[in-house]
Amino acid sequence: MTMVTMSAREFNHDVSSAKRAAEHAPVFITDRGRPSHVLLSVDEYRTLIGADRSLAESLALPESADFEPAVLDFEAKIPEL
C-alpha cells in the first residue's frame, strides 16, 4: 500500500482524484507542509474501528476483558414530600 499525500490546495481543486486515491490507500492531506487530515475509504474506516465485527466478537476480544465499571458509592435517601 503506497502512501498518497496531497496539499490542502490540491485536495480542494481535485476532490474526485483524492476520493479515487483513497479507494486504494489512505490519502494524507497537508496544510502548510504538515499532515492535517487523512482521507480513507468507508471500508478501510470500518476495518480500522472494528465495525465489521459482531457484538459477540467484540466482547470476546482480550482488551474488552480489562473493562471494570466504576462502583458508585452513595447513600439512598427517601425524599420528603
From TrEMBL:
It comes from the Bacteria. SUPFAM superfamilies: YefM-like (SSF143120). Belongs to the phD/YefM antitoxin family. Antitoxin component of a type II toxin-antitoxin (TA) system. This is Antitoxin. It comes from Jiangella aurantiaca. The lineage of its organism: Bacteria, Bacillati, Actinomycetota, Actinomycetes, Jiangellales.
